[in-house]
Design a protein that fits this description.
492 residues, Fumarase C, Chain B, domain 1, mainly alpha, Fumarase C, Chain A, domain 2
């Protein structure tokens, strides 16, 4: 079980919650903070102080005062009216992340929500009750209003949740668990939806997948080097220490580790003096992508523990301040940066794949790795497919964060589009994974032709693992299932 306290959640803990089915518990001190913050809201309502979101309208309606008797209806109307997301739903794993992150943010105790609501969130995590949340409709500022409203609907017994991969009415689930829906009190609706948890949830999943893919890209590249008699001198530690980027040094070290004791790699001058950039510059290019991942990780871990709603309540209600922590610009930039870093892993992978299949470049391997060149096409169209995906990535890598459209009568006149950036980053990761799967299939085929028994022990172990999933290219076959199987392997 992972204890949540609003301030110390890490990505490795999110991995445990998302991919290892760990549950969550709530820190007692955090719940005390939450209770005190709630008491402050109730005092504001009793004293009829005018405070945004508690007894006023929202956005452009912030100047409209709401009677005390209508504060519950105000929150209900807010959730229903803002639940206007469209398109395909987020993957269930992202929905789970969204619940965890919203819970963790509210545990900071600055939002004025009841502990009862947060305990229901924890129940949802621990019983795998995951809301169905449409992906499209968030501007990424004023919070991820539409996606988080669909999340909040489930608490109210409205909307839908996932069950066995299919949407079912939320009320059916609460009846099954013998629980009543939550009835929102003053400010609670706003506390639930004013935040960046949709983009951050997708960002968490993106980072975890991208990190895994970056590690996998290295052994795939090492296998390609063996198939092409690659020159290992380019990974000499002195070269990379001379430049000074730690990530570049680390990649070069890992590459030498993968290729240790290989009988297929060469040294400079043995077959040629130097390799093409897609081989020789693996530490420089992959290392730069690791720099991107480092930046992204830092920003995500800050945002996972951030208070991102509005207004925030301090000093037990004596200070209630309206601000803009719901603005998603930090995550928008991080996701746009991640798109570029992952797209480059695919770009260089496609260039290595081209060298494996091109008879002008592949050091004597059969043209397109065909067992009968001309009669059988071999891997010819794998390169076409990879080229298509890297080209698509270049379009998706256009930064979402440079766009903004005013909303709410121009009151909310600058927005981040961070959720769009996070969604596009997920598409780039999927495309990159498929490109690397294609390189892996061609690299294992090249090593099979060279003689797999000559491979380095570590790459040979990966070769054997791949071979359990798909065979090397031989007689022409339908390659789409092979790509999918290897891509699945690369998600681990």
């Amino acid at each position: 079980m992972i204890e949540l306290n609003g301030s110390s959640l890490r990505l490795d803990q999110m991995h445990a919650i998302l991919f290892e089915e760990s549950g969550v518990t709530l820190n007692d001190e955090a719940l005390i903070r939450v209770t005190k913050s709630r008491e402050a809201v109730e005092k504001i309502v009793r004293e009829d102080r005018t405070v945004y979101g508690i007894n006023t309208g929202f956005g452009k309606f912030s100047d409209v005062k709401i009677d005390e008797k209508d504060t519950k209806a105000l929150q209900l109307h807010l959730i229903r009216s803002h639940a206007c997301g469209v398109g395909e739903p987020f993957p269930e794993i992202v929905s789970r992340a969204m619940v965890v992150l919203r819970l963790n943010a509210l545990l900071k105790g600055f939002s004025g929500i009841r502990a009862e609501v947060l305990k229901r969130f924890a129940y949802m995590v621990n019983h795998r009750i995951h809301p169905v949340i449409p992906q499209q409709g968030s501007l990424g500022a004023s919070g991820d209003l539409a996606p988080l409203s669909h999340l909040a609907l489930v608490l109210l017994g409205e909307g839908f949740v996932w069950q066995n991969g299919k949407p079912v009415p939320a009320m059916d689930i609460w009846k099954k668990h013998r629980l009543q829906p939550i009835v929102l009190e003053a400010k609670e609706g706003l506390a639930l939806i004013n935040g960046t948890q949709a983009m951050t949830a997708q960002a968490v999943v993106n980072y975890l997948e991208a990190e895994s893919l970056a590690y996998n890209s290295e052994w795939i590249a090492a296998m390609t080097m063996e198939a092409l008699y690659g020159i290992t001198d380019a990974f000499h530690p002195a070269i990379h220490e001379a430049r000074g980027y730690p990530e570049q040094v680390d990649v070069a070290t890992r590459m030498l580790g993968w290729l240790e004791d290989s009988q297929l790699t060469t040294i400079q001058g043995e077959k040629r003096v130097q390799d093409a950039y897609s081989i020789r510059c693996i530490p420089q290019v992959h290392g730069a992508s690791w720099q991107v991942l480092g930046y992204v990780k830092e920003k995500i871990e800050i945002e996972m523990n951030a208070a991102t709603d509005n207004p925030l309540i301090f000093d037990e209600g004596e200070t209630v301040v309206s601000g803009g922590n719901f603005h998603g610009q930090p995550i928008a930039f991080a996701m746009d940066f991640l798109k570029v870093g992952v797209a480059e892993l695919a770009n260089i992978s496609e260039r290595r794949l081209e060298r494996l299949v091109n008879p002008q470049l592949n050091e004597g391997l059969p043209p397109f790795l065909s067992s009968e060149p001309g009669l059988q096409s071999g891997a010819m169209i794998l390169q076409y497919s990879a080229a298509s995906l890297v080209s698509e990535n270049k379009t998706l890598a256009h930064p979402a964060s440079v766009d903004s459209i005013p909303s709410s009568g121009n009151q909310e006149d600058h927005v981040s589009m961070g959720t769009i950036g996070a969604r596009h980053a997920q598409s780039i990761i999927k495309n990159a994974r498929n490109v690397l799967a294609m390189e892996a299939l061609c690299a294992m085929t090249g090593c099979h032709i060279r003689g797999a028994e000559q491979m380095a022990p570590k790459t040979k172990a990966k070769f054997d693992q791949l071979k359990e999933v798909v065979p090397p290219i031989g007689e022409d076959r339908i390659y789409a299932p092979d790509i999918e199987k290897i891509a699945q392997l690369l998600t681990r």
